[in-house]
Specification:
heterodimer, A: 460 residues, mainly alpha, 3-stranded mixed sheet, 3 strands, elongated, B: 236 residues, alpha/beta, Rossmann fold, 6-stranded mixed sheet, 7 helices, 27% strand, globular
Amino acid sequence: MRLFWLLFSYEWRHFRAAKGLVLLCALLLLTGLYGIYYGTTEIERQRQHLTTLPELTRRNVEELKVKFPGPTDAGDIGYYHTTYAVHHPDAWAALSLGQRDINPYYVKLRLLGLQNQLYATDNTNPMKVLSGNFDLAFVLVYLFPLLIIALSFNLLSSEREEGILTLLLAQPVSPGVVVGAKLAFRLAVVLGLAWLLSAVGMLWAQVPLDGRVLTWLGLSTLYCLFWFGVALIITALQRTSAFNAVTLLGVWLLLVVLVPSLLNLGVAAAHPVPQGIELTIKQREEIHAGWDRPKTQTMNRFFALYPQWRDTATIRERFVWRWYYAFQHLGDLAVAKQAAAYANGLQQRYDLVEKLNLLSPAINAQGSLNALAGTDLPTHLKFQRSATAYHDALRAFYYPFLFRKVEFTHKDYAQEPTHTFTSQPELSTALRGLVKLLLSVGVVFAAGLLLLRARPINPR
Amino acid sequence: MNYILEAKELRKEYPNKLALQGLNLQIEPGEVFCLLGQNGAGKSTTINLFLGFIAPTSGAAFVNGMEVAANPLKIKEHLAYIPENVMLYPHLTGLENLALFSSLAGFKYKEAELLDYLHHAGLPAEAVRRRVGTYSKGMRQKVGIAIAVAKHAKVLLLDEPTSGLDPKASNEFSQLLTQLSTEGTAVLMATHDIFRAKEVGTRVGIMREGELVDVRPTAALNAQELEQLYLTYMHN
């Protein structure tokens, strides 16, 4: 151990002398801080936006009270009254934004058909989404491997190429100790940076100090270890620094860019999902057709589903709200299968990626961090289900007014259901990811050590 | 007789080259054995086999009675090595390089002692605290000599050690070798320098195409005779 620590301490001197690497570490630190700033700012923007929604609802109610000063038909209120299903972020979302930029974090709802409202929200500039998130998770998953490559591509090769290795290995020191000390020092630098940035991020985002702190640190540590394992394999091949650099960058390109892209294409082909726009158009056509259908036909279909309202009076008027909302709802039901297929398809794609993400620790790490932060697809689907349940609750609130012909008064606004949904971490997914990363680390280190054993280090 | 260095039927074969064929060699403590031969004759291969840098195809090398292949680390406690071109950490000073390599060898010297080793190796005082990146080849060679001497090894393995040294420094190095040998240090030196071999060696071995073709005590030959012998083998 004495020799290990001696070499470790000299690695610090070598590192200090390599100004480019020091600069690179400083740059990555700044990049990580920017990632934290970006993530916390984005989540704060979303939070601010969400806090304005109750005020918008309140103003809408005030306007409706002016528009309808006395008791009125609840159908008018259901049509003009806007309320919101809101998806509050967890504090961890600031560190791993996941899909919160592409999936809506609130849904503007009226008593009309749900499906077109669920998919109508598009509150982000697509050009901005194209560039992706620059949060801490991005820095850890995509940029840290590049730092590890920069630090490790010439782990032994530079000393071999400079001729120092012959003198070094002529001393009574095992090549394994030399490699171990070098690797350990680089690991300390990288993990020091990763942990420092994680700590700053957690403090900045004010995350609750629970088990997720350890899970986050475990995921980032194992992910970095995986890349050091890859570097160990390449080092064990005992080729030139140029070969090592090109090979490591090739592996980075493969695991971080190519495999995720191919996986994306593969799961899309394996689980095709109907387009949201097709669903919306079909629902809209169904609703528009409702105007032309005989009212009895519409109401009989509706009463078959909601027999409790069957005893309400036969519609003889040209227009009544209960008929209008009935065919709105039937429009939703007409696309219920497509809506379920859409959600199931997305979930199946996600599940398939979950199964195959062992192929790319980058996907695994990103998915696990998103799951930890409650910003992954399952969380969004949960929010959609919650929004659907909220719409059901709104219908259940308004139907007695509509079918019993009870007038809606100002005090009834306060009785209207409200919605809130806060992301919950998908801890089981994150822990599964942790185990898979551990497996990946085991595989690369075992391969590296076996290679080192099979090909003893030649100092020349 | 306990030999400090011994090779028994030592053979090293590469896929397209026989680098060393059945070398048998015994070197006693205090002996300076000079290996003469052209490039590719097997001199450096012999040294690399004793250092454990390469594994023999067959046969065995022994250092202080221990087989190299079985004791790769232990034997290095008894060996010091000076390559033809000593390369050191360029961003460390000569003093820091010496401190590092001495520590790796298990010696913890005070600064004054380190300075003393560097001084005796002939490194100018003004250079000891300069970064090695600014050193000439000869200056690096002197730090290499200091590293080897500071290790107090029983055996010195030298591969063209005076390459890059000026005549004065080469002469001082020869004196140092003589002094070390009188203290009981065995030296195995690969060299092209016949006159240096005659000057410091107790025996010379001539290698050709991986084979030790002749071994003579230097006392039995003068420089011209040694040169003639060498040239005869090279031309046959």
